[in-house]
Design brief:
heterodimer, A: 277 residues, mainly alpha, MetI-like fold, 2 domains, 0% strand, globular, B: 362 residues, alpha+beta, Rossmann fold, OB fold (Dihydrolipoamide Acetyltransferase, E2P), five-stranded antiparallel sheet, 8 helices, 20 strands, binds adenosine-5'-triphosphate, binds magnesium ion
């Protein structure tokens, strides 16, 4: 039976599908489902009317308003601060973790690896609660610092995974060649291994940055009173008044996230192309 | 050679990987300036032995001395050897120049000296104009020459090469064989090359060690390996042989008298003792084919041609002999013709001089 299906698929020229209405319908439904909310969000950020869902004409007034909103401003800077610091730390730690897991064997390595990557699959709310309870029990007051620490904790495994994936393609004889030519282990790392890791480091760092920048749940729980980050601020704005200013702020976040992701993807593809030769 | 001290002295070296013994009690001396080959089938432990010389594997037993210095506990970067890797391991993010300069830079050679030495090394491998290229802009053969230059610029006492030609196409491989020999003569460095290709070892090396499952079977110059193999394994691995089982029947003068099924008692020249069941063998190119029974003084078997394999310069003629053993005879195609002078099914005699018989006790 599987044979029959496979044959039928192969019989059809891929372009033939373009003539089939059901295919167009599928694409359309999925697209609407995925993007309709986002497209409306972005579109209405340019609305000149105050009610969110009645279009009255194009204007940039909400962007202007958002730009002049002092507390939104502050939240944005907080976000940058949190994302910046946590990215630097988690990239360094995650890279070391990834490298260690790639290179060394030690007892219980499999178990350790599983546990180290757990934050990727643990529900965010549980991570958040765990963090808060931990801070409370140790007697640390919640502040932007606790947000940074939490962000480092949940982004490290993502960076480690990226670095490990990158190292999987590494030719270890390059390190041996370096040692053979008289370099110490330290020199070998900096001159041979590290340059190879760079694309992975950049990709991992961008990922950590975006994860931190977009994070709501963990930040909401671990931030001190009045310490807003951008997403948390957007949420609180939404609770007071639903004006297109929220749309404008959200659009800014979308644009930042998309551009960083795009940069990461372009870099990845350029590097893999260079290596594929 | 007798009073020269070996540059590499391998004494009873063993290497175990868990329960696998990759190298088993190997002893080899390599003399200064020698082109030495480690030859053997896949998995016989050649690479492992080479990596122990370079310092990438520890020994499980025995000693290695290089240039009179014990190597136990000496890390790879402190050994007077350099290696050319099978995958070349050219640093992909550095230019050709930087690749070659690397070994000098990391050991603190002054900048002023580096440029000159790198250029010299590049000209040695004919890559003068390629200094600014990146490795991905080079062909496989060029990349390998970068790896060579990178190792030679360090002026090592010994250059180790792990299957350096295996990734090249047949034509380039032939050219590089000559090139490596030329290079070795001009720099005067001891070369130790690993290969599983007997032609490569025979054509390049001054001496070769034939390895079999971690054990060295014979160490000798190529000619001796070919003409006087000490075992069936070596005879069979280096070139082709036609082999017959024999039983030692006695000694007569300098000859060994053996009993061979289908040939009766024959006398073959042999130095040293032999007893019991042995093998005798003859190389295909040392046999003659004739339609009539050959005269006295040669060893001969009657057979029927079962196949003719044409190789251009020569043909291999397969013969089913009356004793049931298949023999191959090599015939030089020294006159131009398209039709073979023999055909499948022909009855022929295959013969050889007793002096061409190999007596293989093992
Ligand atoms: N790191 C290792 N761990 C376990 N076993 C190993 C290791 N390296 C080599 N071996 C084993 O040791 C034996 C010899 O391997 P080695 O690589 O030296 O063979 P080789 O003669 O170079 O073969 P080839 O011609 O295929 O390269 C093999 O049986 C191999 O499986
Ligand atoms: Mg090998």
């Amino acid at each position: 039976m599987t044979n029959k299906v496979a044959r039928r698929r192969r019989d059809v020229n891929p372009l033939e599908y373009l003539k089939r209405p059901w295919m167009w319908l599928t694409l359309f439904v999925c697209f609407v489902f995925l993007y309709f909310p986002i497209v409306t969000l972005v579109a209405f950020s340019f609305n000149s009317y105050k009610r969110a869902f009645v279009w009255k004409g194009f204007s940039l007034q909400w962007y202007e308003k958002a730009l002049n909103n002092q507390s939104l401003h502050e939240a944005f800077l907080n976000s940058m601060h949190v994302a910046g610091v946590s990215t630097v730390v988690s990239t360094a730690l995650g890279a070391m973790l990834g490298l260690a897991l790639y290179r060394y064997w030690f007892p219980w390595k499999g178990t350790y690896e599983g546990i180290a990557h757990l934050p990727i699959v643990i529900p965010e709310i549980c991570m958040a609660v765990a963090m808060v309870v931990f801070f409370w029990s140790v007697g640390i007051e919640l502040s932007l610092t606790t947000v940074i620490v939490s962000h480092i904790a949940f982004t490290i495994p993502f960076v480690a995974v990226v670095i490990r994936a990158r190292m999987a393609g590494f030719d270890t004889s390059l390190e041996e060649a370096s040692r053979d030519l008289g370099a110490s282990e330290w020199q070998t790392f900096w001159h041979v291994t590290f340059p190879y890791m760079i694309p992975g480091l950049v990709a991992g760092a961008l990922m950590a940055f975006v994860l931190s920048l977009d994070d709501f749940v963990i930040t909401f729980f671990t931030a001190g009173v009045g310490d807003n980050t951008f997403p948390v601020k957007i949420y609180s704005m939404l609770r007071f008044s639903v004006t297109p200013e929220v749309n404008a702020a959200s659009t800014v976040l979308i644009v930042i996230t998309l551009s960083l992701t795009l940069v990461a993807m372009i870099m990845q593809s350029r590097w893999t192309k260079g290596r594929g030769q | 050679m007798t009073d020269a001290k070996p540059i590499i002295s391998i004494r009873n070296v063993t290497k175990n990987f868990g329960r696998v013994t990759a190298v088993d009690n190997v002893s080899i001396d390599v003399m200064p300036g020698e082109f030495f080959a480690l030859l053997g089938p896949s998995g016989c432990g050649k690479t492992t032995l080479l990596r122990m010389l370079a310092g990438f594997e520890t020994t499980s037993g025995g000693e290695i001395e290089i240039d009179g210095q014990a190597m136990l506990g000496v890390p790879p970067n402190k050994r007077p050897v350099n290696m050319v890797f099978q995958s070349y391991a050219v640093f992909p993010h550095m230019t050709v120049f930087d690749n070659v300069a690397y070994g000098l830079k990391v050991t603190g050679v002054p900048k002023a000296e580096i440029t000159g030495q790198v250029e010299e090394a590049l000209s040695l491998v004919h890559l003068e104009d390629y200094g600014r290229r990146k490795p991905d802009q080079l062909s496989g053969g060029q990349r390998q020459r970068v790896a060579l230059a990178r190792a030679l610029v360090k002026k090592p006492k010994v250059l180790l090469l792990d299957e350096p030609l295996s990734a090249l196409d047949a034509k380039l491989r032939e050219a590089m064989r000559l090139e490596l020999v030329r290079l070795q003569h001009s720099v005067g460095i001891t070369f130790v090359i690993v290969t599983h290709d007997q032609d490569e070892a025979l054509s390049m090396a001054d001496r070769a060690a034939v390895m079999d499952r971690g054990v060295v079977r014979q160490i000798a110059p190529p000619g001796e390996l070919y003409e006087h193999p000490n075992s069936l394994f070596v005879a069979d691995f280096i070139g082709k042989v036609n082999m017959l089982e024999a039983k030692v029947a006695g000694q007569s003068g300098g000859d060994l008298v053996v009993e061979v099924e289908g040939m009766g008692r024959i006398a073959v020249p042999h130095e040293g003792a032999a007893a019991g069941n042995i093998s005798i063998a003859v190389r295909p190119e040392k046999t003659l084919l004739s339609a009539d029974k050959p005269g006295e003084g040669v060893l001969a078997l009657k057979g029927k041609i079962s196949d003719v394999a044409y190789y251009g310069n020569e043909s291999h003629i397969l013969l089913d002999t009356e004793t049931g053993v298949q023999f191959t005879s090599t015939v030089q195609n020294d006159a131009r013709r398209t039709e073979s002078s023999v055909a499948i099914g022909d009855d022929l005699w295959i013969s050889w001089a007793p002096g061409n018989t190999l007596v293989l006790a093992e």
